[in-house]
Structure to design on (169 residues):
């Protein structure tokens, strides 16, 4: 029997089981920031971040196709990916909430292109919005890194449906 097929068969599980299986993979936690047309800022929590290439320096992240922020992130030329440190779980939760101004009371600096870099982040990457690939119910964003900085410290990690850190306890 051949194992080659031109398309995948139907899944043998439901979405709840799939989510549970995915939760077993520990991921870092990021806040992606950019600017709205009116000059205000937009930011959201994402754990779908990965390196793609060293030359040129490329990273990726993904956003649900139905996200209200999709037009902004698709249309803007730049965004900043902030890698949260182990003590920034409250920021991850804040930027995942549906509130009017997620930046209210949040300490940040501005990047070269005028985008928020969250203070206390383990690292950040200022990216040119190079390309987008719709796949399933998400869009994969590939960013070409123009600037980055590192402040070595234990990162915030999402595993088993909760935030934790790699810091020694």
């Amino acid at each position: 029997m051949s194992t080659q097929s031109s398309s995948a068969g139907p899944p043998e599980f439901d979405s709840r089981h799939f989510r549970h299986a995915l939760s077993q993979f520990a991921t870092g936690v990021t806040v992606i920031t950019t600017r709205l047309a009116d000059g205000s800022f937009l930011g959201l929590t994402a754990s779908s971040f990965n390196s793609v290439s060293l030359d040129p320096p490329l990273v990726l992240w993904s956003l649900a196709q139905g996200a209200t922020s999709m037009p902004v992130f698709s249309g803007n030329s730049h965004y900043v990916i902030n890698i949260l440190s182990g003590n920034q779980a409250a920021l991850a939760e804040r930027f995942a909430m549906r509130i009017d101004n997620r930046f209210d009371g949040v300490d940040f600096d501005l990047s070269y292109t005028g985008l928020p870099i969250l203070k206390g982040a383990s690292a950040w990457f200022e990216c040119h919005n190079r390309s987008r690939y719709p796949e399933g119910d998400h869009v994969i964003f590939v960013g070409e890194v123009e600037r980055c900085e590192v402040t070595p410290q234990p990162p915030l990690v999402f595993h088993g449906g909760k935030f934790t850190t790699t810091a020694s306890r």
Summary: The first helix runs from residue 15 to 22. The chain has a mean pLDDT of 92.
